[in-house]
């Protein structure tokens, strides 16, 4: 398993990035947020399913975050598109989130598909 703490320390050394503090996600695992100079947001999360174990501090892309205006309608669409109904969690709450730790109300749903795509690795 990759170490989120080590990844956080690595990202803190990179310039032109906004890095949040370490946080716990809805499953209780460590995570943190990164915002690059192009205003792209990345959520670095705990995981243990990798294509190949390496000495890098992160294992690569594990999914995507999509902001939507109608969660129920979007769930019907994406579960059909991905051919999955595996909902890891469906959480509504208020929390500090994002690279700047803004306090926000939100609903967050994690869908999981067990078929992996080969995507490029990070440079960190």
Secondary-structure blueprint:
Elements (H helix, E strand, L loop, with lengths): L3 H9 L5 E2 L3 E2 L5 E6 L5 E5 L25 H12 L4 E11 L4 E10 L13
Antiparallel strand pairs: 1-3, 2-3, 3-4, 5-6
- Measured between the Cα atoms of the first and last residue, the distance is 16 Å
Low-confidence stretches: none
Q: State the total count of DSSP E strands.
A: 6
N-to-C SSE string, H for helix and E for strand: HEEEEHEE
Instruction: Based on Cα principal axes, name the global outline.
Output: globular
Q: How many helical stretches?
A: 2
Q: Taking Cα atoms only, what radius of gyration do you get, to the nearest Å?
A: 15 Å
* Share of helical residues: 10-25%
Strand content: 25-35%
Provide structural commentary.
The strands form 2 sheets. Strands 1, 2, 3 and 4 form a 4-stranded antiparallel beta sheet that branches. The model has no long low-confidence stretch (mean pLDDT 80). The chain is of the alpha+beta class. Strand 2 (23-24) and strand 3 (30-35) form a beta hairpin. It has helices spanning 4-12, 71-82, and strands spanning 18-19, 23-24, 30-35, 41-45, 87-97, 102-111.
